[in-house]
Amino acid sequence: MTLTAHLFYFLALLLAGQGLSDSLLTKDAGPRPLELKEVFKLFQIQFNRSYSNPAEYTRRLGIFAHNLAQAQRLQEEDLGTAEFGQTPFSDLTEEEFGQLYGHQRAPERILNMAKKVKSERWGESVPPTCDWRKVKNIISSIKNQGNCRCCWAIAAADNIQTLWRIKTQQFVDVSVQELLDCDRCGNGCNGGFVWDAYITVLNNSGLASEEDYPFQGHQKPHRCLADKYRKVAWIQDFTMLSSNEQVIAGYLAIHGPITVTINMKLLQYYQKGVIKATPSTCDPHLVNHSVLLVGFGKEKGGMQTGTLLSHSRKPRRSTPYWILKNSWGAEWGEKGYFRLYRGNNTCGIAKYPITARVDRPVKKAPVSCPP
User: Fold this and answer.
1) Active-site hit among 159, 204, 263, 326
2) Rounded to two decimals, what is the model's pTM?
3) Is 53 a catalytic residue?
4) In this predicted model, what pLDDT tens digit does every residue of 143-170 receive, in sequence order?
5) For residue range 256-267, what is the model confidence (pLDDT) as tens digits?
6) Is 147 a catalytic residue?
7) Residue ranges of the alpha helices (H) in the chain?
8) Across the chain, what does the average pLDDT equal?
9) Would residue 204 show up in a list of annotated catalytic residues for this protein?
10) Catalytic residue among 151, 189, 282, 347
11) Which of 203, 288, 289, 345 is an active site residue?
12) Between the CA of residue 267 and those of 39, 86, 93, 230, what are the distances in Å?
């Protein structure tokens, strides 16, 4: 449910003051807290939330109010067309959100194992738009990682199966669970990196299907079943692309979707539109969430509606954007997708653009984990 401008105004006033005190959440505070409680009740119904005791309810209500005020602040600061507000994560603190849905920070180094390619030529002739979702049977449905911090495995699996579908016209879904159970470099549901998944595929000589080896939402240490099922897709290596966004766009348009790792901070509050953040609101160096980059385009200019605290309208320029596939279910964001501004490394999108090279296996020496 969309929040009213009145409620956002109320929350902004709270944020401008000393924050939510216990007295503001009591009946003595008058009708406004009751309005907030009604919105919170609707949130609980929509996302099936319940709390163990009254103290926990009161704590979550305070977090909920803080997050809505934070969303309003982001609405004021964003330079794109994004809308921020209530999401499935509105009762979580920023720390809880990071612990539950991201992975550890990516290392401040270029991965030595990924093949580097001189790909500047791919940026020479880039089409105005590209959306692999529009090609039948190429992009699979949105997954939901739940409480398993396996965005890295899902992004890598999506990358492999998408490229395999493009190359072979065999429309298979590959096993995310195999990447978790058989992973020797990452940490399963406690986080990892996309290259951990690729190393697992190389060492297992391919991946089983999702149908044979289905996702469980948790890992099974020392229960790798890779040898039990036949392989349905293979890779020969994986590639680190240039950090030039024009080059990334050209490569994506020719070869297919790739994985990227971004700073996910703003996604806790994201509803729809194109996020154009500044480095101060979304640090491009602190990347902690892996997703699949499936396309790009440009949102037409026109009249931009003002914030929820102001109903003024102002002209805006056309906005170039990336289209990204997330792993938090289809009810989040734009039916499971989100868009980031294209051209200024928003939220670190150009830091680790990595993709597999799919093909039938060749005999190679086992691959070791990165140091």
Assistant:
1) 326
2) 0.85
3) no
4) 999 999 999 999 999 999 999 999 999 9
5) 999 999 999 999
6) no
7) 5-16, 31-46, 54-77, 94-101, 151-168, 176-181, 194-204, 245-255
8) 85
9) no
10) 151
11) 289
12) 21, 11, 13, 37
